[in-house]
Amino acid sequence: MWFVYVIISSLFSALYYFGNQSAKISPNVFMFYRGIVPVIVLLPFLPLFPFIGAWQFYALCLLQGCVIAYIDNRNYQAMQKWGAEIISSLHPFSVGVVFVVWFLLKPAEGIQLISNPLKFIGVVVTLSCIVYATASFKKDADTKAALAYLLPFYLGAAVCDNINKLCMSYLTSEQVMAGSYYYILLTGAVIALFNFGLYLYRGGEVCHLYSMQNIKYSWVLLIGICCMVSKNFAMFSVSNPSYVTAALYLYIIWIMIGGQVLRYFGVNGTFKKVNRRKALLLLIAAVALILLEK
Question: Are 218 and 103 in contact (CB under 8 A)?
């Protein structure tokens, strides 16, 4: 069932993208909202969710919040320096890092996969196809510099998705919803505290955080919550977190379709056209990965 949750999460990711396109909010404020909005929305429902018995789960959630806060800021700084298009085109290279790091954490699973050579080769090929289909790597000096700068980001992203999977491994099937709740709540609190301190350090004024001009766009983060819940369910069900990391790039196809629909109805926007051949390759590779995992 992991692939069903991945498809749902990728749909929410596409909606999140379109929401970000329409939201006119300062990046510094947005990064604070990324943590505080989930906390404000979810905290009133605390009595409805039973506590998770494993203390390791909570420790990993707090660690995850620190990792997310770091890689978000690293990513933001890279986008400021090299532009969103170049940086986003390099993100898929983290898939391979997630794949390798998980087997370093769980060597028994790596040995089991390698013991089935056909499946191992199939997984490597499909993951490589997904990376190729979603990345437009340009061999120029600026991109090489960006790639070097993003190496800590790739390691952080790999740690992030692997921690996500480890968190879910401490849950039973009956606890996944409660676990998702605490995961989003705790990581959000850490992200909010980190970015609030960073916002003040950069000279931001507290009054701007509560400006209605900014608050009215916070609804976009509600989509992000839905995306995280479905991703957590996928992580709980999948054997290797890199499969979820890779398959989530299906959101590119939904963006392509959504952009065409919006243009048909005369809605203007900076909807980047996607190469149809690469989109088809992405879809085929994602389906192949799902079949291999089954």
Answer: no
CB-facing half-sphere around the CA of 208: CA atoms within 13 A: 13
Q: Are 124 and 289 in contact (CB under 8 A)?
A: no
Predicted model pTM: 0.84
**Measured between alpha carbons, how far is residue 140 from residues 137, 144, 145, 150, 274 in Å?**
9, 6, 9, 15, 22
Q: What is the residue type of 276?
A: R
Residue 234 has, within 13 A of its CA and on its CB side, a CA count of 27
d(CA 284, CA 199): 43
> How many other β-carbons are positioned within 10 Å of the β-carbon of residue 25?
18
Residue recorded with tokens 């090489």: 144
Distance CA 195, CA 193 (A): 6
The first and second tokens of residue 84, run together, are 């969103």
Name 194's Cβ contacts closer than 8 Å, sequence gap at least 6. Answer: 35, 65, 66, 69
Give kind and range of the element (H or E) at residue 184: helix 176-201
Tens of pLDDT, residues 121-145 = 988 898 888 887 776 555 555 566 7
What pLDDT shows up at residue 290?
75
The dihedral built from the CA positions of residue 203, 207, 210 and 215, taken in this order, carries a sign that is negative
Burial (CB count <10 Å: 0-12, 13-18, 19+), residue 102? buried
Report whether 176 contacts 168 (CB < 8 A): yes
pLDDT tens column, 168-193: 999 998 999 999 999 999 999 999 99
> Is-contact 38 184, C-beta < 8 A?
yes
